[in-house]
Design a protein that fits this description.
Distance between the termini: 38 Å
Number of domains: 2
Largest sheet: 7 strands, mixed
Radius of gyration: 19 Å
CATH superfamily of the largest domain: PurM-like C-terminal domain
Number of helices: 8
Structural class: alpha+beta
CATH class of the largest domain: Alpha Beta
CATH architecture of the largest domain: Alpha-Beta Complex
Strand order of the largest sheet: 8-10-7-11-9-12-13
Strand content: 25-35%
Length: 292
């Protein structure tokens, strides 16, 4: 497990040089609230949220790419409005087949694809990317807002199975999250457990929040596996509300552990990330808290 945890942490910082390169681009956009400097699940300009995902291998993207991008939009506190895609394919026949699967994702979730681009360059591998636009329905939810004493709860099914199964599982977690917003549950931070696995995304929340954590439940055996679930940081008194809404929607819900003042990550009594390592990660993370 320690090797997987190391890979998760390394993954968390691998795009830091890219973010540093674009760091001052944020200052050129009027109304920008979340951008490169936050590196969150979406960029926020005014009351609109933008997310781009990919390129995915074509086989993966046609089953789950749009759903993953929508997950990020909702995780930022927004309702998805519409989407775009860009695909590289070997033939128009393949493009049509992929488009049929994308339409199933779009119709199943209710987020139309209204544009994009298709190309057939012979020397490129087939792949696909997505952009989704959403509109805030509450104040944006950062991944840096974990507070001492918060519980972090994982919400949603692991995203696997057939296309139909993935659409169903996505609808369940989206409905659950939107109801948590509607019922004004006090949520301090949200992160989509995606690339880097649940441990990597948990560590990113903690590094950005400058907090530690004690893991009291393992939500999935592999800490590096893509899950497509939400991790939400809430005050202890709000956990029962989260569980109630999740149960009402037949949505899996697991309390992972508690945010601590000490800068470390423990699994039970085992020290997974020391204070010295956490401080180094905080120093190495190019990050600025979003403007309120």
């Amino acid at each position: 497990m320690k090797d997987e945890i190391k890979r998760s942490i390394d993954h968390m910082l691998e795009t830091s040089p890219i973010r540093r390169t674009f760091w001052h681009q944020d200052e050129k956009v009027e109304g920008l609230r979340y951008g490169i400097q936050q590196g969150d699940d979406g960029a926020v300009v005014g009351d609109l949220v933008y997310n781009m995902e990919g390129p995915y291998p074509l086989k993966t993207g046609r089953k789950t790419g749009l759903l993953h991008s929508i997950t990020d939009i909702i995780g930022m506190g927004a309702r998805p409005l519409y989407a775009f895609n860009a695909m590289q394919v070997d033939s128009i026949k393949e493009a049509v087949e992929v488009s049929e699967d994308l339409k199933k994702q779009a119709n199943g979730i209710g987020v139309p694809i209204i544009g994009g681009n298709t190309q057939m360059e012979n020397d490129l591998k087939p792949c696909i990317s997505f952009v989704v636009v959403g509109k805030l329905i509450r104040e944006p939810l950062a991944d840096c807002g974990c507070r001492i004493g918060d519980k972090i709860v994982m919400v949603g099914h692991v995203m696997d199975g057939t296309l139909g199964e993935r659409v169903y599982r996505a609808k369940v977690k989206y409905k659950t999250m939107l109801e948590l917003y509607d019922e004004a549950v006090d949520i301090h931070a949200v992160k989509d457990a995606s690339r880097g696995g649940w441990f990597g995304n948990l560590a990113e929340m903690l590094v950005k929040s400058k907090r530690g954590f004690k893991i009291t439940a393992v939500p999935y055996a592999s800490p590096t596996r893509y899950m497509g679930t939400y991790m939400i940081s809430v005050p202890k008194k709000e956990v029962d509300k989260v569980v109630s809404v999740a149960a009402r929607n037949k949505c899996p819900c697991v309390e992972v552990g508690q945010v601590m003042k000490g800068l470390y990550i423990k699994l039970g009594d085992e020290m997974l990330v020391t204070e010295a390592r956490m401080k180094k990660l905080i120093r190495g993370m190019p990050y600025r808290k979003p403007k309120k």
